Amino acid sequence: MALTREQIAMRVAQELEDGFYVNLGIGIPTLVANYIPEGVKVMLQSENGLLGMGQFPTEETIDPDLINAGKQTVTAVTGAAFFSSAESFAMIRGGHVDLTVLGAFEVDQEGNIASWMIPGKLVKGMGGAMDLVAGAENIIVTMTHANKHGVSKILKKCTLPLTGAKCIKRVITELALMEIKDGAFHLLERAPGVSVEEIKEKTEADLVVPDHVPEMKLNS
Amino acid sequence: MSGFDKVVHSYEEALEGFTDNMTVMVGGFGLCGIPEGLIEQVYKMGCKGLTAISNNAGVDGFGLGKWLEKRQISTMIGSYVGENELFEKLLLSGEMEVILTPQGTLAEKIRAGGAGIPAFFTATGFGTQVAEGKETRNIDGRDYVLEPSLTADFALIKAWKADTMGNLIFNKTAMNFNPMMATAGKITVAEVEEIVEPGELDPNFIHTPGIYVQRVIKGEHFEKRIEQRTVRPSTKEA
């Protein structure tokens, strides 16, 4: 079975290490915060100026001056810090954030990512995404493997305007965990019950498949 | 003290000298930390042909969304337009020039502008549309884009507390772009929730020193509209 959004988030959460500073993008990446493994403490960075993002507030503690990068009302954990946008992106651009998780429309086998516009149709702007992919060493992209018509989004070459060039190394979809290296996707894990054949079928890019592809372990 | 008394008592006074075709920075991230009264005043004045520099453009009917209604902005420099239908329409139709800029690059352009640095190299945007037509350079094996800095005729910002000398403190994530913009405006106007006497703010905890601020106005009313009201259930009742 293909993974649900929550299960994708669960698999990403296994990559978190104790002591990590982590930036989670909007959408599936945000859900990762719900599955932080026991014994692991991370500080969530929100690029609008918060290190140490906490859970949503209650009705009684809601504060319009305290939001995350998705403009949702949030809280700050003990040990949190507030700062300006320039300071925030100094952290990001300067490589101080340990892990960045973000979504994408397309990725390709050169490590390029497209996530911010569809010409003539959808222009949301890049927000902080271009800075995040340029600044982080350790990036995980979460996305769907193909669109609803079955057209692959795991490509030889991105067709949409890029967010960043040659910066993506790991991608988790509802079907697979893949690594990008030497100009190809390498299949590392498959979703439970999903065949290698199905993944191959939905992958337009060059895909290197080892003899044995283990199933993801999703324990929560 | 009078030379250092930055307090003005009306929005008219706060925006004296603000005219058509100016470049104006407006603080805030989404609707968080925006100078609501100053935005309203520019809307009332109806100034046109503005180059507006702001991370977002408000939402339909609120914040900079109001300037869009009156087509007051001819060029918009920002990073994200997702929550504003009118913005997207004006962008796609070409009615308004829009220079989409990565958020960190935007913040740094403003910081650099205020700090007297004309341009800087950044890896952000290399190999994308953002780098088109810009000088690039390889430094120690990595490719960078040269980004010119930004300054403005007016910077309209929002702070939490000010003293009469223009020293400012921001509240939580309502800080965002406000401190950099304060440094990059020829005339910086701070709309604040509270004005106190010099000495009442601890000099150790001033975010923006008064040297950057020309005018301070106590806001008449802050709606502080929330874009995404997300809550969890209250913990067990007693």
Structural summary, described in words:
The complex is a heterodimer of chains A (220) and B (238). Chain A is 16% helix and 26% strand. Chain A has 5 helices and 15 strands. In chain A, the strands form 3 sheets. In chain A, strands 4-3-2-1-5-10-12-13-14-15 form a 10-stranded mixed sheet, sandwiched between helices. Chain A is globular, with a radius of gyration of 17 Å. Chain A starts with a helix and ends in a 12-residue tail after the last strand. In chain B, the strands form 2 sheets. In chain B, strands 1, 2, 3, 4, 8, 9, 10 and 11 form an 8-stranded mixed sheet that branches. In chain B, helix 5 (103-114) packs parallel to helix 6 (178-184). The relative contact order of chain B is 0.19. The model of chain B has no long low-confidence stretch (mean pLDDT 95). At the A-B interface, helix 3 and helix 4 of A face helix 4, helix 5 and helix 6 of B.
Descriptive keywords:
heterodimer, A: alpha/beta, ten-stranded mixed β-sheet, three-stranded mixed β-sheet, 5 helices, 16% helix, 26% strand, globular, B: 238 residues, alpha/beta, eight-stranded mixed β-sheet, 6 helices
Query: Number of helical runs of chain B?
Result: 6
Largest sheet: number of strands, sense, barrel closure of chain A? 10 strands, mixed
Number of helical segments of chain A?
A: 5
Quick one: how many beta strands of chain A?
15
- Give the helices and strands of chain A as they follow along the chain: HEHEEEHEEEEEHEEEEEHE
Sheet/helix structural class of chain A: alpha/beta
Overall mean pLDDT of chain A: 95
